[in-house]
Design goal:
The structure holds 3 protein chains of 3 kinds. By secondary structure, chain A is an alpha/beta fold. Chain A has 10 helices and 10 strands. In chain A, strands 6-7-8-3-9-10 form a 6-stranded mixed sheet, with helices on both faces. In chain A, helix 3 packs parallel to helix 6. The longest helix of chain A has 18 residues. The model of chain A has no long low-confidence stretch (mean pLDDT 88). In chain B, 72% of the residues lie in helices and 3% in strands. The longest helix of chain B has 31 residues. In chain B, strands 1-2 form a two-stranded antiparallel sheet. Chain C is mostly helical. The radius of gyration of chain C is 21 Å and the shape is globular. Classes of the chains: A alpha/beta, B mainly alpha, C mainly alpha. The interface between B and C is large, with 54 and 50 residues.
Chain lengths: 238, 299, 384
């Protein structure tokens, strides 16, 4: 079997003295959808930020089996890993289309970039309508669409999504999840999702990590998790 | 009327120069969120290089090329090797490094070229009759040249910002550094280039202003007041706005010309005191200036 | 009153090697023991010896030492607000100048004795400090630095415009006879420089002791709290506005004291000469190089800003000292963020540690309390 796309071994990270993540192992295969579940403060965002190169970490991070050290976000984008950060991951003073162009700065194929912009405008027609507007004037849902499209502009092989459902109306959340599931299916982009809305994430995920107080307490196949009564009750709430 | 126009022209000339200095500060601020206190001294150094070359028979316009290159390289190197390592620590450390560069570059210029004032040639030679007469007031060609230079610089920056990939990256970094990094933008490289660009523009601005603004000669203390007025202009315009730097610079120039002109009965110049009042008023009442985005620190 | 010198207490804050961790831990000395008192006594004797030696120097060397002590006082003042509260001021030259001109004008135009002008100079600078402290409520960091910069830049211009009072651009000369030492001091007019030396030393010691007591007390804790995290400080009941304004005012008063002494020392005042913002930058350089948030730092800083240019003036005709300052300053920022005093403190800490008998309370070590300050918490909003 080929090496996983992304593999973290014994990853620890935190802010200053405070270690938030301890010794975490996570693995995502090419084209796979994995979800990280956990309560507030479990370290989910810290994990995503470390993987995206926004936070220094200790432990091992392998991309295609190759070790990556002391990373920076632009380097991780170069490795094909792109993050949709929690909250608004857009550049508010830039227009919608400039946000998308900025998302593609690592690419050299101008024609391909323009094609992709068209593609995401087709996927998210509401962005197309507002393509000259500054991103800061968009609604929350539109900004989240823009953040996703922007992250996809670098043509990542792995998309990290940090709570894209946060603060959005259920109907929009439903739409967003359908969209990323579709992207995964059509483009083979692997997804690593952090979600509070576990039920929704479980529908598209094939593997699951449970994070508690900075440590992975359980991990495995998503279908097995759905069978487990206790987990379902605690994390899925049904 | 003619006195008013004369003062207006003088104010716009000085204001154009303040605007150029303000632009260099704004470009740095947009990337690094700091004021480079040494900006004027970088320009002083490059102007000394330019002067030194003219003494060796170079054409003044040709000397601008090495001046601009040196301005770019020095500022970019200062960002990369002196500012970036401490900028994560705190704001004060960055300011202290700026003050060190300020002191050091001034001293270095003095060590190399001596402290006596130098006669620095004008880019555009003028004679007594090289002016346009407008309603009885004289608008000298070199004033037109200064305003033209400002228009050219602002036009160049605007094109760079709106039409190029580098400009897109600079705008992205100015809005949100973290998101810019997540786009794959090399944020550190953008910082370095921004500083270099400011250094290059500063080199041009200094070459223009030295023969025009008093004392009309190249001397060690010359750039500091320019930096002050540039800072005030930038704050008035709202530190992170290019448009603001231009409007701020011109308003400050015209405003000071009027106050010092019509207020001359009070005796002596009060430009710096006015500058103090403007800074305190802007930062106290409307910290984001005329055109800045609202993100200044307040508690 | 707390002791003037407990130099080695610096050992405690940095405490890199807890006991038993190294092959041979540092020597631990408990506060209040005979050995501790012995060390304090030795340090006091050394300092007193240095000061007494300064009293026997030739006029020029002694003058330099007086000048260094005056700058030390000014930097002590700057340290109070820039070091401890973190309100960066580039324009403390205005306080120095205001203090100097207050003394100059009162002595020349109002026939006051020089000594009696000191409290007036301090009071006026205190008021200016209150005024500057007000913008500090709304403006922080870089922006406050710009406000103080503007103040420092505007000061000479304002002085020049108040020509009737200050002599304007021509300057203000205080005749030597007006600076006659008071009779009770026992110094004659010919010994004016001696008198000024001792007066400055007394002022330095007083300012040092008073500020040290404030900094090590409750108020000092509030100042540290405001610097590290305003929101947390406010939540703990610290009145941020009071701390900021008061610290700026006290800082201004102390620097004004230095200015008053400076007027007596220099005799003739030129706003464009001694009180430009370059002087303010010099004070800041002295503070950073000497050591922010240390008690000894300002004294080292005063010595450095006076003697470094003096001893390097042979090289490259005066301008070179500026280059050297820049190099030292950058080296300090990179290598020893707590300045020479802080760096020394850390070196000494490897060998000697002073500990309280009972681990209670905090001490403001002579060489700095910085290392003992807890790191400001990472932005809680950074989320997880």
């Amino acid at each position: 079997m080929s090496a996983p796309l992304l593999q973290a071994k014994g990853l620890s990270a935190g802010y200053g003295q405070a270690m938030v993540l301890r010794d975490v192992d996570v693995e995502v295969a090419p084209g796979q959808v994995a979800v990280v579940l956990g309560a507030n403060g479990a370290g989910k965002t810290t994990l995503m930020r470390a993987l995206a190169g926004l936070l220094p970490f200790s432990g091992e991070l392998l991309i295609d089996g190759q070790a990556v050290r002391n990373s920076r976000p632009d380097k991780m984008v170069g490795h094909g890993v792109s993050l949709v950060p929690q909250g608004r991951g857009t550049m508010s003073a830039l227009s919608v289309v400039d946000n998308l162009r900025a998302g593609a700065v690592s690419r050299r194929d101008r024609a391909g970039v323009e094609e992709d912009i068209e593609r995401w405008f087709t996927t998210f027609p509401r962005l197309a309508e507002r393509h000259e507007q500054p991103a800061g004037t968009l609604s929350g849902g539109e900004q989240q669409m823009l953040a996703i499209a922007r992250a996809l502009m670098s043509r990542p092989r792995l998309l990290l999504c940090d709570e894209i459902s946060l603060g959005l109306a259920p109907r929009i959340v439903q739409e967003l999840f359908e969209t990323i599931a579709q992207i995964n299916a059509e483009m083979g982009t692997a997804l690593l999702l952090v979600e509070q809305n576990a039920a929704l994430a479980m529908k598209i995920a094939s593997s699951v990590y449970l994070l508690e107080v900075g440590e992975v307490v359980e991990s495995g196949d998503a279908r097995d998790f759905e069978q487990s009564e206790s987990i379902r009750r605690v994390y899925l709430g049904y | 009327m003619d006195i008013f126009l004369t003062r207006l022209f003088a104010g716009m000339t000085a204001g154009s120069i303040y605007a150029m200095i303000a632009l260099t500060l704004v470009i740095v601020f947009r990337s690094s969120a700091t004021i480079n206190f040494a900006q004027g001294e970088f320009a002083l150094f490059t102007t000394y290089v330019s002067w030194w070359l003219t003494e060796r028979g170079w054409n003044i316009w040709v000397t601008l090329i090495p001046a601009v290159v040196i301005g770019f390289v020095l500022c970019a190197a200062a960002e990369r090797f002196l500012v970036r390592p401490v900028r994560r620590r705190d704001e004060a450390a960055v300011l202290i490094v700026g003050l060190a560069l300020f002191t050091g570059l001034n001293g270095l210029s003095g060590t190399i070229w001596g402290s006596a004032d130098k006669v620095y040639p004008r880019l555009v030679p003028v004679s007594v009759d090289s002016f346009l007469e407008i309603a009885g007031a004289r608008l000298f060609y070199d004033s037109l040249f200064v305003m033209g230079a400002l228009v050219a610089i602002v036009g160049g920056i605007t094109l760079l910002m709106s039409r190029t990939n580098l400009g897109l990256q600079m705008r992205a970094v100015a809005t949100n550094q973290e998101s810019a990094g997540l786009c794959g933008i090399k944020v550190g490289r953008v910082f370095m280039i921004s500083w270099g660009l400011a250094g290059a523009i500063g080199a041009v601005a200094a070459a223009i202003l030295v023969p025009i603004l008093p004392p009309g000669q190249l001397g060690l203390p010359g750039m500091f007041h320019m930096l002050i007025f540039g800072t005030v202009a930038a704050i008035l315009g709202g530190l992170d706005s290019i448009k603001g730097a231009v409007v701020g610079g011109l308003s400050l120039g015209v405003g000071l010309a009027m106050i010092n002109g019509y207020g001359s009965a009070l005796g002596g110049s009060i430009s710096l005191t006015v500058a103090l009042v403007v800074v305190v008023a802007v930062l106290g009442l409307r910290p984001s200036g005329l055109f800045g985005s609202k993100r200044l620190e307040r508690v | 009153m707390s002791t003037l010198i407990d130099k080695t207490s610096a050992a405690r804050p940095s405490g890199e090697a807890p006991e038993g961790s190294g092959r041979r831990g540092p020597l631990v000395i408990l506060r209040g023991t005979g050995r501790y008192r012995g060390i304090v006594a030795v340090c006091l004797v050394l300092a007193a010896g240095f000061v007494a030696w300064g009293g026997t120097l030739q006029p020029f060397e002694q003058g330099q030492l007086t000048r260094a002590a005056i700058f030390a006082i000014a930097i002590l003042g700057l340290n109070f607000t820039t070091g401890y509260v973190g309100l960066l001021s580039v324009g403390h030259s205005a306080f120095l100048g205001l203090g100097a001109y207050t003394t100059g004008v009162l002595v020349v135009s109002y026939n006051q004795t020089a000594l009696s002008t000191i409290p007036v100079a301090m009071a006026i600078c205190f008021v200016l400090g209150l005024l500057v402290g007000i913008p500090a409520l709304r403006i922080r960091g870089l922006y406050l630095a710009i406000v103080t910069l503007a103040l420092g830049v505007a000061f000479p211009e304002i002085v020049a415009r108040l020509g009737d009072l200050t002599g304007g651009a021509e300057g203000l000369t205080i005749r030597r006879t007006l600076l006659r030492p008071p009779e009770w001091s026992g110094f004659t007019l010919g010994e004016k420089d001696q008198w000024l030396y001792w007066l400055t030393i007394v002022c330095l010691v007083l300012a040092f002791v008073v500020l040290r007591n404030v900094i090590t007390g409750r108020y000092g804790m509030a100042m540290n709290a405001v610097r590290q995290n305003e929101i947390a400080a406010a939540a703990s009941g610290v009145n941020i506005a009071t701390v900021k304004i008061f610290s700026f005012a006290v800082s201004g008063a102390i620097t004004g004291l230095a200015g008053s002494l400076f007027a007596m020392y220099i005799g003739s005042l030129f706003a464009e000469g001694s009180f430009t913002v370059l002087a303010g930058i010099t004070l800041l350089i002295g503070l950073v190089v000497g050591g922010e948030r240390t008690m000894l730092g300002p004294i080292l800083g005063g010595l450095i800003v006076v003697f470094l240019p003096y001893y390097t003036s042979d090289l490259g005709g005066g301008q070179f000292s500026a280059v050297l300052f820049a190099i030292v300053l950058i080296a300090v920022v990179f290598v020893a963020p707590d300045g020479i005093a802080g760096g020394l403190g850390r070196v000494i800490a490897k060998f000697v540690r002073i500990e309280a008998r009972r681990p209670e309370g905090r001490d403001g070590g002579l060489l700095g309390t910085r290392a003992s300050d807890p790191e400001p918490a990472a932005d809680p909003g950074a989320g997880r």
